[in-house]
Amino acid sequence: MGHSHSHDGDDSTLTRPELRRRKAVRRRAVVLLSWILVPLGLLTVVAMMMLWPGGGDGAPLAGNPYSAAPGASIDTGTVQRTATEDCPGSAGGPGASCFIAHTAVAGLADVPVVVSPDVVQARGVRVGDKISYLNLSGLVAVTGVQQEGPQYVFMDFVRTLPMGLLALLYAVVVIAVARWRGLRAIVGLGGAFAVLSWFILPALAEGKSPLLVALVGSSAIMFGVLYFAHGFSARTSTALLGTLFGLGVTAGVAFWAVDAAALTGTSGHNSYQLLNLTQGMSLSGMILCGLVISGLGVLNDVTITQSSAVWELYELAPHTSARELFTAAMRIGRDHIASTVYTIAFAYAGSALPVLLMVSLYDQPLIQALTGVELAEEVVRILVGSIGLVLAIPVTTAVAVAVVKSTGRGAAGARPVAEPVDTKVIAC
User: Which residues span the membrane (predicted)?
Assistant: First the structure.
Protein backbone atom coordinates (compact mmCIF):
# COMPACT_ATOMS: atom_id res chain seq x y z
CA MET A 1 0.00 0.00 0.00
CA GLY A 2 1.49 3.37 -0.95
CA HIS A 3 1.40 6.30 1.45
CA SER A 4 0.83 9.71 -0.07
CA HIS A 5 2.76 12.32 1.92
CA SER A 6 2.26 15.21 -0.47
CA HIS A 7 1.56 18.44 1.37
CA ASP A 8 1.26 20.85 -1.44
CA GLY A 9 -0.98 19.02 -3.87
CA ASP A 10 -0.70 19.51 -7.64
CA ASP A 11 -1.81 23.09 -8.34
CA SER A 12 -0.24 23.30 -11.80
CA THR A 13 -3.47 22.35 -13.64
CA LEU A 14 -5.80 24.70 -11.74
CA THR A 15 -7.30 27.92 -13.05
CA ARG A 16 -6.57 31.14 -11.20
CA PRO A 17 -9.94 31.27 -9.36
CA GLU A 18 -9.53 27.66 -8.28
CA LEU A 19 -5.97 28.32 -7.13
CA ARG A 20 -7.09 31.37 -5.14
CA ARG A 21 -9.83 29.33 -3.54
CA ARG A 22 -7.39 26.59 -2.46
CA LYS A 23 -4.95 29.13 -1.01
CA ALA A 24 -7.76 30.86 0.87
CA VAL A 25 -8.89 27.56 2.38
CA ARG A 26 -5.36 26.68 3.44
CA ARG A 27 -4.77 30.10 5.04
CA ARG A 28 -7.98 29.84 7.04
CA ALA A 29 -7.04 26.32 8.16
CA VAL A 30 -3.61 27.45 9.31
CA VAL A 31 -5.09 30.29 11.36
CA LEU A 32 -7.69 28.01 12.92
CA LEU A 33 -5.15 25.35 13.90
CA SER A 34 -2.73 27.97 15.21
CA TRP A 35 -5.17 28.85 17.98
CA ILE A 36 -4.72 25.31 19.29
CA LEU A 37 -1.13 24.46 18.44
CA VAL A 38 0.59 27.70 19.45
CA PRO A 39 -0.47 27.38 23.11
CA LEU A 40 0.52 23.69 23.06
CA GLY A 41 3.90 24.62 21.61
CA LEU A 42 4.48 27.29 24.25
CA LEU A 43 3.43 24.86 26.98
CA THR A 44 5.94 22.32 25.62
CA VAL A 45 8.75 24.90 25.68
CA VAL A 46 7.93 26.02 29.24
CA ALA A 47 7.68 22.43 30.49
CA MET A 48 10.95 21.57 28.76
CA MET A 49 12.69 24.47 30.51
CA MET A 50 11.31 23.37 33.89
CA LEU A 51 12.38 19.76 33.37
CA TRP A 52 15.74 20.55 31.75
CA PRO A 53 18.59 18.60 33.40
CA GLY A 54 20.36 20.81 35.89
CA GLY A 55 23.81 19.21 35.84
CA GLY A 56 26.10 19.88 38.76
CA ASP A 57 25.43 17.71 41.80
CA GLY A 58 22.24 16.32 40.27
CA ALA A 59 23.94 14.80 37.24
CA PRO A 60 25.20 11.26 37.71
CA LEU A 61 28.80 10.74 36.75
CA ALA A 62 30.36 7.55 35.46
CA GLY A 63 33.77 6.80 34.09
CA ASN A 64 34.46 5.73 30.56
CA PRO A 65 33.69 1.98 30.42
CA TYR A 66 36.39 1.61 27.78
CA SER A 67 39.13 3.31 29.78
CA ALA A 68 41.96 1.18 31.11
CA ALA A 69 43.83 0.98 34.42
CA PRO A 70 47.27 2.61 34.78
CA GLY A 71 49.80 0.60 32.82
CA ALA A 72 47.12 -0.89 30.56
CA SER A 73 45.77 0.54 27.33
CA ILE A 74 43.14 -0.13 24.70
CA ASP A 75 44.69 -0.36 21.24
CA THR A 76 43.43 -1.12 17.74
CA GLY A 77 44.98 -3.08 14.90
CA THR A 78 44.30 -5.09 11.76
CA VAL A 79 44.26 -8.89 11.87
CA GLN A 80 46.98 -10.42 9.68
CA ARG A 81 46.46 -14.11 10.42
CA THR A 82 44.58 -16.36 12.83
CA ALA A 83 45.44 -19.69 14.45
CA THR A 84 44.53 -22.00 17.31
CA GLU A 85 47.55 -22.16 19.59
CA ASP A 86 48.52 -22.95 23.17
CA CYS A 87 47.05 -20.36 25.52
CA PRO A 88 49.69 -17.88 26.73
CA GLY A 89 50.58 -18.02 30.41
CA SER A 90 48.17 -19.99 32.55
CA ALA A 91 45.02 -19.01 30.66
CA GLY A 92 42.65 -21.98 30.31
CA GLY A 93 44.86 -24.29 32.37
CA PRO A 94 47.76 -26.55 31.31
CA GLY A 95 47.59 -27.71 27.70
CA ALA A 96 44.60 -25.52 26.85
CA SER A 97 44.35 -24.03 23.37
CA CYS A 98 43.15 -20.53 22.48
CA PHE A 99 42.12 -18.83 19.28
CA ILE A 100 44.81 -16.21 18.55
CA ALA A 101 44.39 -13.30 16.15
CA HIS A 102 47.83 -12.09 15.14
CA THR A 103 47.37 -8.36 14.70
CA ALA A 104 49.55 -5.72 13.05
CA VAL A 105 49.80 -2.48 15.00
CA ALA A 106 51.90 0.60 14.30
CA GLY A 107 55.28 -0.03 15.93
CA LEU A 108 54.54 -3.72 16.63
CA ALA A 109 54.86 -6.33 13.93
CA ASP A 110 52.88 -9.16 15.53
CA VAL A 111 50.54 -8.83 18.52
CA PRO A 112 48.97 -12.18 19.60
CA VAL A 113 45.43 -11.24 20.69
CA VAL A 114 43.45 -13.91 22.56
CA VAL A 115 39.83 -14.12 21.34
CA SER A 116 37.09 -15.46 23.63
CA PRO A 117 35.31 -18.70 22.56
CA ASP A 118 31.87 -17.06 22.28
CA VAL A 119 33.16 -14.59 19.67
CA VAL A 120 34.83 -17.43 17.77
CA GLN A 121 31.62 -19.45 17.74
CA ALA A 122 29.33 -16.55 16.82
CA ARG A 123 31.23 -15.01 13.96
CA GLY A 124 34.95 -15.51 14.37
CA VAL A 125 37.78 -13.11 13.71
CA ARG A 126 38.97 -12.99 10.11
CA VAL A 127 42.00 -11.70 8.30
CA GLY A 128 41.55 -8.03 7.52
CA ASP A 129 39.22 -7.31 10.45
CA LYS A 130 40.04 -4.21 12.47
CA ILE A 131 39.76 -4.98 16.18
CA SER A 132 40.29 -3.31 19.54
CA TYR A 133 42.06 -5.18 22.32
CA LEU A 134 43.19 -4.69 25.90
CA ASN A 135 46.97 -4.29 26.13
CA LEU A 136 48.25 -5.48 29.53
CA SER A 137 51.93 -5.61 28.61
CA GLY A 138 52.68 -2.38 30.50
CA LEU A 139 51.27 -3.49 33.85
CA VAL A 140 54.54 -4.99 35.02
CA ALA A 141 56.23 -1.59 34.85
CA VAL A 142 53.54 -0.09 37.12
CA THR A 143 52.91 -2.96 39.54
CA GLY A 144 56.31 -4.61 39.49
CA VAL A 145 54.58 -7.98 39.22
CA GLN A 146 54.85 -10.15 36.13
CA GLN A 147 51.43 -10.51 34.49
CA GLU A 148 50.21 -14.09 34.22
CA GLY A 149 47.96 -15.11 31.39
CA PRO A 150 47.51 -13.35 28.05
CA GLN A 151 49.05 -9.92 27.52
CA TYR A 152 46.60 -8.95 24.78
CA VAL A 153 42.85 -9.69 25.06
CA PHE A 154 40.21 -9.14 22.37
CA MET A 155 37.56 -6.51 23.26
CA ASP A 156 35.50 -5.70 20.18
CA PHE A 157 35.44 -5.13 16.45
CA VAL A 158 36.03 -1.61 15.10
CA ARG A 159 32.88 -0.91 13.08
CA THR A 160 33.41 2.74 12.16
CA LEU A 161 33.98 2.23 8.43
CA PRO A 162 31.12 -0.20 7.59
CA MET A 163 28.60 1.67 9.72
CA GLY A 164 29.72 4.99 8.22
CA LEU A 165 29.29 3.58 4.71
CA LEU A 166 25.84 2.25 5.60
CA ALA A 167 24.80 5.65 6.98
CA LEU A 168 26.11 7.36 3.84
CA LEU A 169 24.19 4.92 1.62
CA TYR A 170 21.03 5.56 3.65
CA ALA A 171 21.39 9.33 3.25
CA VAL A 172 22.08 9.06 -0.49
CA VAL A 173 19.05 6.81 -1.10
CA VAL A 174 16.69 9.00 0.94
CA ILE A 175 17.85 12.24 -0.68
CA ALA A 176 17.87 10.74 -4.19
CA VAL A 177 14.27 9.59 -3.88
CA ALA A 178 12.70 12.24 -1.63
CA ARG A 179 15.00 15.12 -2.64
CA TRP A 180 14.85 18.23 -0.42
CA ARG A 181 12.12 16.75 1.73
CA GLY A 182 14.30 13.71 2.37
CA LEU A 183 17.22 15.94 3.33
CA ARG A 184 15.00 17.88 5.72
CA ALA A 185 13.76 14.62 7.22
CA ILE A 186 17.33 13.47 7.88
CA VAL A 187 18.22 16.80 9.50
CA GLY A 188 15.02 16.59 11.55
CA LEU A 189 16.00 13.09 12.66
CA GLY A 190 19.30 14.51 13.87
CA GLY A 191 17.38 17.12 15.87
CA ALA A 192 15.21 14.39 17.38
CA PHE A 193 18.29 12.50 18.56
CA ALA A 194 19.65 15.76 20.00
CA VAL A 195 16.49 16.11 22.13
CA LEU A 196 16.84 12.48 23.18
CA SER A 197 20.53 12.88 24.09
CA TRP A 198 20.49 16.30 25.74
CA PHE A 199 17.08 16.33 27.38
CA ILE A 200 15.28 13.00 27.73
CA LEU A 201 18.17 10.76 28.81
CA PRO A 202 19.80 13.23 31.26
CA ALA A 203 16.41 14.14 32.74
CA LEU A 204 15.63 10.46 33.33
CA ALA A 205 19.05 9.93 34.89
CA GLU A 206 18.41 12.81 37.30
CA GLY A 207 15.18 11.20 38.50
CA LYS A 208 12.71 13.58 36.81
CA SER A 209 9.15 12.30 36.27
CA PRO A 210 9.37 9.72 33.45
CA LEU A 211 5.81 10.40 32.28
CA LEU A 212 6.36 14.16 31.99
CA VAL A 213 9.78 13.72 30.40
CA ALA A 214 8.34 11.32 27.82
CA LEU A 215 5.38 13.57 26.97
CA VAL A 216 7.35 16.82 26.81
CA GLY A 217 10.33 15.35 24.96
CA SER A 218 8.17 13.48 22.45
CA SER A 219 6.01 16.56 21.83
CA ALA A 220 9.11 18.69 21.22
CA ILE A 221 10.42 16.10 18.77
CA MET A 222 7.14 15.98 16.88
CA PHE A 223 6.83 19.78 16.65
CA GLY A 224 10.33 20.00 15.20
CA VAL A 225 10.34 16.94 12.96
CA LEU A 226 6.91 17.42 11.38
CA TYR A 227 7.24 21.11 10.58
CA PHE A 228 10.88 20.87 9.49
CA ALA A 229 10.35 17.86 7.22
CA HIS A 230 6.90 18.70 5.83
CA GLY A 231 6.73 22.49 6.11
CA PHE A 232 4.23 24.81 7.79
CA SER A 233 0.83 23.93 6.35
CA ALA A 234 -2.68 23.06 7.43
CA ARG A 235 -2.06 19.40 6.62
CA THR A 236 1.05 19.25 8.78
CA SER A 237 -0.72 21.04 11.63
CA THR A 238 -3.65 18.64 11.44
CA ALA A 239 -1.30 15.67 11.52
CA LEU A 240 0.57 17.20 14.47
CA LEU A 241 -2.66 17.62 16.41
CA GLY A 242 -3.56 13.98 15.78
CA THR A 243 -0.03 12.91 16.73
CA LEU A 244 -0.19 14.81 20.03
CA PHE A 245 -3.51 13.15 20.79
CA GLY A 246 -2.00 9.75 20.04
CA LEU A 247 0.95 10.56 22.32
CA GLY A 248 -1.41 11.46 25.14
CA VAL A 249 -3.36 8.22 24.74
CA THR A 250 -0.15 6.17 24.54
CA ALA A 251 1.27 7.84 27.65
CA GLY A 252 -1.95 7.28 29.62
CA VAL A 253 -2.26 3.63 28.65
CA ALA A 254 1.46 3.06 29.25
CA PHE A 255 1.25 4.63 32.72
CA TRP A 256 -1.50 2.17 33.66
CA ALA A 257 0.06 -0.84 31.91
CA VAL A 258 3.51 -0.54 33.49
CA ASP A 259 2.00 -0.65 36.98
CA ALA A 260 -0.76 -3.17 36.24
CA ALA A 261 1.61 -5.59 34.49
CA ALA A 262 4.28 -5.06 37.20
CA LEU A 263 7.03 -4.21 34.73
CA THR A 264 10.01 -3.59 36.99
CA GLY A 265 12.76 -3.18 34.40
CA THR A 266 15.11 -5.43 36.34
CA SER A 267 15.28 -8.27 33.81
CA GLY A 268 17.98 -6.72 31.62
CA HIS A 269 21.69 -7.24 32.23
CA ASN A 270 22.21 -3.44 32.51
CA SER A 271 19.54 -2.88 35.16
CA TYR A 272 21.64 -2.97 38.30
CA GLN A 273 24.44 -1.03 36.64
CA LEU A 274 21.93 1.71 35.82
CA LEU A 275 20.76 1.76 39.43
CA ASN A 276 24.34 2.18 40.62
CA LEU A 277 25.19 4.90 38.10
CA THR A 278 22.07 7.03 38.57
CA GLN A 279 20.57 8.73 41.57
CA GLY A 280 17.06 7.51 42.24
CA MET A 281 16.08 6.70 38.66
CA SER A 282 13.08 4.39 38.40
CA LEU A 283 13.65 1.43 36.10
CA SER A 284 9.91 0.98 35.62
CA GLY A 285 9.73 4.69 34.79
CA MET A 286 12.38 4.14 32.15
CA ILE A 287 10.16 1.46 30.60
CA LEU A 288 7.21 3.90 30.67
CA CYS A 289 9.25 6.52 28.83
CA GLY A 290 10.41 3.93 26.31
CA LEU A 291 6.83 2.83 25.60
CA VAL A 292 5.90 6.40 24.64
CA ILE A 293 8.99 7.11 22.52
CA SER A 294 8.97 3.78 20.67
CA GLY A 295 5.72 4.56 18.86
CA LEU A 296 6.64 8.03 17.60
CA GLY A 297 7.76 7.03 14.11
CA VAL A 298 4.74 4.94 13.11
CA LEU A 299 2.33 7.36 14.79
CA ASN A 300 3.76 10.26 12.83
CA ASP A 301 3.55 8.27 9.60
CA VAL A 302 -0.13 7.39 9.86
CA THR A 303 -1.28 10.83 11.01
CA ILE A 304 0.56 12.71 8.25
CA THR A 305 -0.79 10.28 5.66
CA GLN A 306 -4.33 10.45 6.99
CA SER A 307 -4.28 14.24 7.02
CA SER A 308 -3.07 14.30 3.42
CA ALA A 309 -5.80 11.85 2.40
CA VAL A 310 -8.53 14.11 3.79
CA TRP A 311 -7.17 17.19 2.05
CA GLU A 312 -6.75 15.42 -1.28
CA LEU A 313 -10.29 14.06 -1.15
CA TYR A 314 -11.69 17.45 -0.24
CA GLU A 315 -9.82 19.30 -2.98
CA LEU A 316 -11.06 16.78 -5.53
CA ALA A 317 -14.66 17.25 -4.41
CA PRO A 318 -15.10 20.33 -2.15
CA HIS A 319 -18.90 19.97 -2.04
CA THR A 320 -18.73 16.49 -0.46
CA SER A 321 -20.47 16.47 2.91
CA ALA A 322 -18.43 16.14 6.10
CA ARG A 323 -19.87 12.71 6.79
CA GLU A 324 -19.06 11.41 3.31
CA LEU A 325 -15.57 12.89 3.50
CA PHE A 326 -14.92 11.28 6.89
CA THR A 327 -16.24 7.91 5.67
CA ALA A 328 -14.07 7.99 2.54
CA ALA A 329 -10.96 8.96 4.49
CA MET A 330 -11.56 6.27 7.09
CA ARG A 331 -11.60 3.64 4.33
CA ILE A 332 -7.98 4.62 3.78
CA GLY A 333 -7.40 4.83 7.53
CA ARG A 334 -8.58 1.29 8.12
CA ASP A 335 -6.02 0.07 5.59
CA HIS A 336 -3.36 2.00 7.51
CA ILE A 337 -4.49 0.45 10.77
CA ALA A 338 -4.36 -3.05 9.32
CA SER A 339 -0.87 -2.61 7.88
CA THR A 340 0.79 -0.67 10.70
CA VAL A 341 -0.47 -2.91 13.51
CA TYR A 342 1.42 -5.91 12.22
CA THR A 343 4.29 -3.61 11.18
CA ILE A 344 4.74 -2.71 14.86
CA ALA A 345 4.49 -6.34 15.92
CA PHE A 346 7.06 -7.54 13.38
CA ALA A 347 9.44 -4.69 14.17
CA TYR A 348 9.47 -5.55 17.87
CA ALA A 349 9.63 -9.28 17.12
CA GLY A 350 12.71 -8.73 14.98
CA SER A 351 14.47 -6.67 17.64
CA ALA A 352 13.66 -9.26 20.32
CA LEU A 353 14.43 -12.31 18.18
CA PRO A 354 17.18 -13.70 20.49
CA VAL A 355 14.79 -13.52 23.45
CA LEU A 356 12.00 -15.14 21.42
CA LEU A 357 14.31 -17.97 20.39
CA MET A 358 15.44 -18.53 23.96
CA VAL A 359 11.87 -18.57 25.28
CA SER A 360 10.79 -20.96 22.51
CA LEU A 361 13.33 -23.48 23.77
CA TYR A 362 11.78 -23.54 27.22
CA ASP A 363 9.26 -26.27 27.99
CA GLN A 364 6.40 -24.07 29.20
CA PRO A 365 2.84 -23.11 28.17
CA LEU A 366 2.46 -20.34 25.57
CA ILE A 367 0.55 -18.00 27.88
CA GLN A 368 3.26 -18.34 30.51
CA ALA A 369 5.93 -17.55 27.93
CA LEU A 370 4.12 -14.43 26.69
CA THR A 371 3.48 -13.07 30.18
CA GLY A 372 6.87 -14.05 31.65
CA VAL A 373 9.55 -11.53 32.49
CA GLU A 374 11.47 -12.15 29.26
CA LEU A 375 8.63 -11.17 26.88
CA ALA A 376 6.13 -9.19 28.96
CA GLU A 377 7.77 -5.84 28.23
CA GLU A 378 7.79 -6.41 24.46
CA VAL A 379 4.17 -7.60 24.43
CA VAL A 380 3.05 -4.56 26.42
CA ARG A 381 5.06 -2.31 24.08
CA ILE A 382 3.23 -3.72 21.05
CA LEU A 383 -0.21 -3.39 22.63
CA VAL A 384 0.30 0.11 24.04
CA GLY A 385 1.78 1.46 20.80
CA SER A 386 -1.01 -0.08 18.72
CA ILE A 387 -3.76 1.39 20.91
CA GLY A 388 -2.37 4.92 20.57
CA LEU A 389 -1.89 4.43 16.84
CA VAL A 390 -5.39 3.10 16.16
CA LEU A 391 -7.14 5.85 18.14
CA ALA A 392 -5.05 8.60 16.53
CA ILE A 393 -6.34 7.77 13.04
CA PRO A 394 -10.07 8.58 13.50
CA VAL A 395 -9.21 11.63 15.61
CA THR A 396 -6.81 12.95 12.95
CA THR A 397 -9.41 12.28 10.27
CA ALA A 398 -12.16 14.04 12.22
CA VAL A 399 -9.97 17.08 12.90
CA ALA A 400 -8.91 17.29 9.26
CA VAL A 401 -12.52 17.04 8.05
CA ALA A 402 -13.67 19.69 10.54
CA VAL A 403 -10.89 22.04 9.48
CA VAL A 404 -11.35 21.73 5.72
CA LYS A 405 -15.12 22.03 5.92
CA SER A 406 -15.14 24.99 8.32
CA THR A 407 -12.48 26.92 6.40
CA GLY A 408 -13.83 26.11 2.95
CA ARG A 409 -17.36 27.44 3.44
CA GLY A 410 -16.50 31.05 2.82
CA ALA A 411 -14.00 30.52 0.04
CA ALA A 412 -14.65 32.84 -2.79
CA GLY A 413 -15.91 31.25 -5.95
CA ALA A 414 -16.04 27.79 -4.44
CA ARG A 415 -17.00 25.17 -6.95
CA PRO A 416 -16.00 21.58 -7.66
CA VAL A 417 -12.53 21.26 -9.14
CA ALA A 418 -13.40 17.85 -10.52
CA GLU A 419 -16.32 15.51 -10.65
CA PRO A 420 -17.52 14.47 -7.16
CA VAL A 421 -15.46 11.59 -5.86
CA ASP A 422 -17.12 8.20 -5.46
CA THR A 423 -16.51 7.48 -1.80
CA LYS A 424 -17.21 3.78 -2.37
CA VAL A 425 -14.03 3.32 -4.38
CA ILE A 426 -10.96 4.77 -2.69
CA ALA A 427 -7.53 3.73 -3.83
CA CYS A 428 -4.77 3.88 -1.26
Answer: 29-52, 160-178, 185-205, 211-232, 239-258, 278-299, 340-362, 382-404
